[in-house]
Design a protein that fits this description.
- It is a single chain.
- The chain is mainly β.
- Helices cover 4% and strands 52% of the residues.
- It has two helices and 46 strands.
- The strands form eleven sheets. The protein has a five-stranded mixed β-sheet, with no helix packed on it. A five-stranded mixed β-sheet has the order 27-33-32-29-30, with no helix packed on it. The protein has a five-stranded mixed β-sheet with strand order 38-41-36-34-45, with no helix packed on it.
- A hairpin with a 2-residue loop joins strand 43 and strand 44.
- Helix 1 packs antiparallel against helix 2.
- The radius of gyration is 32 Å and the shape is elongated.
- The two termini are 43 Å apart.
């Protein structure tokens, strides 16, 4: 994802950029909020100005989940429902089915001006702030009724439900902003802390109950302890107007949308790790290096790999022998506490192939050669060069993606077509091919000349600057190559002598009725192209040889 970067934090506003798989183009634009769906392991980014909610799956693939007719502001997930505050007239809260994206209902909040941050309590109520009216609305999700629960003294951008104290925490976009508490159910407003930074656009809370606040004007993230009493620590800087932040509790990372930066930053807050490579062919050996964040002394480092492997120590090495996307866990132990850093679909172990089909065909026939891609990740670009020079004289006619999963790719073309050198290079890009073995194209040739048993190899090795490659999910690599082949046979030459005569009639009869060997290839005995060999083929061949019947018409196989 071009618009996503992974960061580690330090205690004095220092960030370290970590490797990330990046796609060619991002759908993220003016991101206001990020939410994590733990059930389906995906992120949702709401784009403020174009109203789109962008889904980012575990492979980093972006897609449009839903589009609002107005601004898409804050989002929130509760059970299997996805809530979005929208700014169109009138302002409303939209509720979608989290699995399908289907609109369930739209709750219009009459009189509201600028709905933004949302949260839910444990009693089935939704709370949403209005930045312009400086209030908190309470919405009963059972009957969709709502009212103004509280007026706050600042311009609130975000809100968080503090379950341990049964209260709402509200922070506003003003200088030296206060963090205010709204008691439940009474709605009494009190000041919790006066911040030294202000211009707060987002609130989040981690697994240890520590609070994070995004400072939009400074581009910094500050952290308080769970009581909001100790002085705040600037843990991350360099963001471009960080807005409505969120916390991925499963992976222990802070999610920071950059309103002016068209990207999302993901920040580890306790432990993190780097690797010397994130992808490669099997067997894939990867070296890991762990990092503790804000913990000067670590008592134990424990690694877990999803293939059952384990390791200990700050640095570890592991060899992946199973194709696919692999998850890695690092647990660090500090005193009596254990902190987890999990990275799903982090290591990509490849055993991918680019394959051309093989065919036996009679001289003069027109043939179709299938091309296959065996991919581990979602592919958005495939380069397939082909050299078809050999004893069988082939003439390239065309290519097609009809009936292939690449048929909806917007860009499909030959970057080279040299009939003299017998070379072509096919490029497919701009779509999304699912993992697995898939036919991606069919290449059509005419067989001009050749004799029985001769063949031409369809090499995929590449030539000059035209080299085979697959790209997708932020990686580009050379797959394993399996060439195709075109082999000639004479239709009716059942015994493989190179000519068609009465001996072939005898050969087919012996095969059909006396347990003799089959024609090689079997298609050479299917003279009428019926799909099988029977007495009609014997009659067909006799008519051709002695009664001026039509020429044999065998299938290519």
């Amino acid at each position: 994802m071009k618009a996503v970067r992974f960061l580690s934090i330090a205690t004095i506003c220092v960030v370290v950029l970590l490797p990330v798989l990046a796609s060619a183009q991002s759908l993220i634009a003016v991101p206001e909020c990020v939410t994590y769906d733990s059930v389906r392991d995906r992120y949702f980014v709401s784009n403020a100005t174009n109203g789109r909610v962008i889904q980012i799956d575990s492979n980093g693939v972006e897609s449009i989940f839903w589009t609002s007719p107005g601004y898409a502001m804050s989002s929130h997930i509760k059970d299997n429902r996805f809530y979005i505050s929208t700014e169109f007239t009138p302002a409303a809260v939209v509720i979608l089915d989290l699995e399908t994206g289907t609109l369930i209902k739209r709750i219009v909040v009459t009189g509201s001006a600028q709905l933004d941050g949302m949260t839910t309590d444990t009693s089935g109520n939704l709370y949403v702030v209005d930045a312009n009216l400086r209030c908190v609305y309470k919405i009963d999700l059972d009957d969709d009724s709502y009212f103004k629960l509280a007026m706050v003294s600042l311009s609130p951008q975000d809100i968080y439900f503090d379950a341990s104290r049964n209260r709402l925490l509200v922070a506003g976009y003003t200088a030296n902003a206060r963090v205010e508490a709204v008691s439940l159910p009474a709605g009494i407003v009190t000041t919790v802390v006066q911040t030294p930074f202000g211009w707060i656009d987002g609130i989040a809370c981690d697994n240890q109950g520590r609070y994070y606040f995004s400072c939009g004007t400074e581009g910094n993230i500050y952290r308080y302890d769970s009581t909001l009493t100790n002085p705040p620590v600037c843990i991350s800087t360099g963001h471009s107007q960080p807005s409505n932040i969120g916390y991925d509790l499963e992976h222990d990372i802070l999610m920071v949308p950059n309103f002016n930066g068209a990207r999302v930053d993901f920040i580890g807050t306790n432990a993190d790790f780097t690797v010397d490579t994130r992808y490669g062919n099997l067997p894939l050996n990867v070296n890991f290096s762990g990092t503790s964040i804000n913990h000067p002394s670590v008592d134990a480092w424990n690694w877990r790999f999803d293939d059952g492997g384990t390791a200990t120590g700050q640095n570890a090495s592991h060899t992946f022998t199973t194709r696919g996307m692999h998850e890695v866990d690092l647990n660090i132990t500090v005193g009596s506490e254990t902190f987890l850093r999990r990275k799903k679909s982090f290591i990509c172990a490849l055993a991918d192939t680019s394959v051309a089909g093989q065919i036996n065909a009679p001289i003069g026939s027109k043939i179709s050669i299938p091309l296959y891609a065996g991919g581990t990740v979602y592919l958005n670009r495939m380069v397939v060069p082909m050299t078809y020079s050999g004893l069988v004289n082939l003439k390239f006619d065309s290519f097609s993606t009809a009936g292939c999963l690449t048929n909806d790719f917007p860009t499909k073309y030959l970057s080279l077509n040299d009939s003299t050198a017998r070379q072509l290079c096919l490029i497919l890009e701009g779509g999304q091919l699912v993992p697995g073995r898939n036919m991606i194209a069919k290449v059509y040739f005419s067989i001009i000349s050749g004799t029985t048993g001769q063949e031409t190899i369809l090499s995929l090795d590449g030539f000059g600057e035209n080299l085979p490659s697959f790209a997708g999910s932020g990686i580009s690599y050379t797959p394993d190559l399996a060439p195709g082949k075109v082999k000639i046979f004479v239709c009716g030459d059942a015994n493989g002598s190179g000519i068609t005569n009465i001996a072939d009639v005898t050969f087919i009869i012996n095969f059909l009725y006396k347990g003799g060997p089959p024609p090689v290839p079997p298609a050479s005995g299917d003279l009428n192209k019926s799909g099988n060999i029977n007495i009609q083929d014997v009659t067909y061949l006799i008519n051709y040889l002695y009664k001026s019947g039509p020429a044999p018409n065998c299938p290519a196989v």
